[in-house]
Design a protein that fits this description.
With 604 residues, the chain is of the alpha/beta class.
Length: 604
């Protein structure tokens, strides 16, 4: 008679309702910590075996107090070490998520396809790691200077161990791999979802098969697969998109940090301008790389007059002079605008009404495509070709502000033969290496690493009007990034010349800016000075939400919840003593009814 086993599995899935699953199996080769692939709700997902208990006979299965499915045949190629399980269980409460959500967030989406092609058994972070103490260092400088430091200083000290460079996305992984590889020089092993499963398996097998040192470029979900024989980990572009945009909103920088400390290896955070939270909870060891001198010019837009009907006129005399010089000398220019579209706000001159989306009440953005203009809502993406006031039906509409399409129209009007490349959310996001004149939105500026002779910040003041607590940090970082991309000249155009943020960023004075900004966050109670927990109530009937608000107020009264209209609740907690076990238990109950975020990107 075949022996029957009761197998308990922790699902690796990004869902807060995930619970441990139980199966029966006839496979005696199953092991604790093995990754298996199971069916649930018409979807296949990975899980980790927690326990295996033998049962005597089929009758024992029938006598169980719940229905149970048979575990499908598994190939047994990937295992999770005890140290990784311990790391996950410690990390989950600190980030207000479940262990299942952490596992689902740190393992790659292609894990099953990878496991089918693996030739070697792979253990993700076993207990057999050297007894070393981890160290965290922070690195600020231009992209080119950071790469030199990683290659010469960091890798040069590893003595036969591998270097993992963690990047925020697959585009950056491809770009960085190309930059690091040189003819006859270093070869990189890429690990990201842009590669096919067989190539990923081949690269992982190379890491498992030998004790050789490798230069590895990986996105966060592949880091643990590359952790064999690692000597140091770099989190490159530290301010990048490491936080998940959907539930469970996990900050994967925290996971990489915990993994590096558990492995006992040096961890470097590198960026043009590190985030304000970098090093707040540590005693930061900061390394500032040298920057090259360049000519910087600030233009006061309050002194210019608008001569165009395409929003604000940002083609100043100084900007024109730089274009003329670039055309004459055949040099390159990068121009930066804050927004997409022609202009970001449109007002009726008859009734004074803003042209807003009728669906979600946010301002409509004016766009132009194939010679036709239309309004587009950047929140719900509803499109309208009606170019009249929704309030009084007037045609007398006035565009305010300037978007990247408006900037392109102004340049095309003044220089009809100018060949422009626009990089925005509405166009191709990849830089054409032959482009002489490039326009980019500030949101996509971090993706650029190619340097330009001249960089122009045409207009980003509109960002500073946003009621977001992180917005000044974001604007400061964009100016620093722009400065680091400029070879010779940086032109900054603003109506806020008295705001110290421009002077500090152009000078690269990150210390003064961060000191003042952190003091402001401490005063008003925002991260990283304190932890902020945001609950977002579901869109629904007022009566349902009123009952939920009463429940939240009753459950969390001890922690003084702040209700932010229309459907958000904020709780502030000190950094010391986090996580608070009592609050954590209360929040995990409410999480079934409301979205939960720790230290969100935005309060609103």
């Amino acid at each position: 008679m075949n022996r029957i086993y009761l197998v308990e599995v922790t699902p690796a899935i990004r869902a807060h309702f995930a619970q441990k699953l139980t199966y029966f199996s006839l496979d005696g080769s199953l092991q604790k910590g093995q990754i298996v692939f199971v069916e649930g709700r018409s979807k296949k997902f990975p899980g980790v075996i927690d326990s295996i208990k033998p049962l005597i006979g089929r009758e024992a299965v029938k006598q169980l107090p719940f229905k149970i499915k048979k575990l499908a045949q598994q190939n047994g190629r990937i295992f999770v070490g005890e140290e990784l399980i311990k790391l996950v269980s410690n990390l989950a409460p600190r980030l207000l998520v479940s262990e299942s959500e952490v596992l689902g967030s740190i393992l790659p989406a292609k894990l099953e396809m990878i496991s089918k092609s693996l030739r070697h058994k792979t253990c993700l972070f076993s207990t057999n790691v050297p007894n070393r103490k981890g160290e965290i260092l922070y690195l600020e400088g231009s992209f080119d200077e950071r790469l030199k430091y990683y290659e010469r200083v960091v890798r040069g000290k590893l003595r036969g161990r591998s270097l993992i460079i963690v990047v925020p996305n697959q585009h950056y992984s491809e770009l960085l791999s190309q930059k690091l590889e040189s003819p006859g020089g270093s070869k990189t092993l890429r690990l990201d979802d842009g590669l096919k499963a067989k190539e990923l398996s081949s690269n992982i097998d190379k890491l498992q098969a030998s004790g050789e040192s490798h230069l590895i470029v990986a996105t966060p979900t592949y880091v643990v697969l590359a952790a064999r024989n690692v000597g140091a980990i770099v989190v490159e572009k530290e301010s990048g998109s490491y936080r998940q945009i959907g539930s469970p909103y996990l900050d994967l920088r925290e996971y990489v940090k915990a993994l590096a400390l558990a492995l006992g290896v040096k961890l470097y955070f590198g960026d043009d301008c590190l985030s304000l939270g970098a090093g707040v909870s540590d005693r930061p060891r900061m390394i500032r790389l040298p920057t090259k001198k360049l000519t910087s010019v600030v233009v006061d837009l309050k002194l210019t007059t608008t001569t165009t009907n395409v929003g604000m006129d940002v083609l100043t005399a100084e900007f024109r002079d730089l274009i003329d010089e670039a055309l004459a000398k055949k040099t390159s220019i990068l121009a930066i605008s804050a927004r997409r579209g022609v202009s970001n706000i449109t007002v009726c001159t008859d009734c004074g009404q803003n042209v807003d989306c009728q669906n979600c009440k946010t301002p409509l953005v004016l766009h132009e495509g194939k010679g036709l203009r239309f309004f587009l809502c950047h929140h719900c993406y509803k499109k309208s070709t009606k170019l009249t006031c929704p309030n009084c039906n007037s045609w007398r509409l006035k565009s305010l502000g300037i978007g990247i399409e408006g900037l392109a129209l102004q340049n095309k009007k003044a220089y009809p033969s100018l060949d422009l490349q626009i990089i925005s959310g509405d166009t191709d996001k990849r830089l054409n290496p032959d482009s002489q004149f490039v326009l980019v939105t500030e949101a996509l500026l971090p993706q650029l690493t190619t340097r330009f002779d001249t960089v122009v910040i045409a207009y980003i003041d509109s960002l500073l009007a946003l009621p977001e607590f992180r917005i000044r940090e974001r604007v400061f970082r964009r100016i620093v990034e722009a400065r680091n991309l400029a070879k010779k000249t940086l032109l900054v155009q603003t109506r806020r010349t008295n705001d110290p943020i421009f002077k500090q960023a152009i000078a690269g004075d990150t210390e003064t800016f961060k000191y003042e900004e952190l003091k402001s966050r401490q005063r008003f109670g925002y991260p990283p000075a304190v932890h902020v927990i945001k609950l977002t109530l579901p869109a629904g009937s007022e009566q349902k939400n009123r009952a939920l608000k009463e429940e939240i107020n009753s459950t969390l009264r001890k922690w003084k919840p702040l209700f932010v209209p229309p459907n958000r609740v904020i709780i502030r907690q000190p950094l010391l003593g986090w996580p608070n076990a009592e609050l954590l238990n209360a929040l995990l109950v409410l999480r079934k009814k409301a979205k939960l975020e720790l230290d969100p990107e935005s309060i609103l």
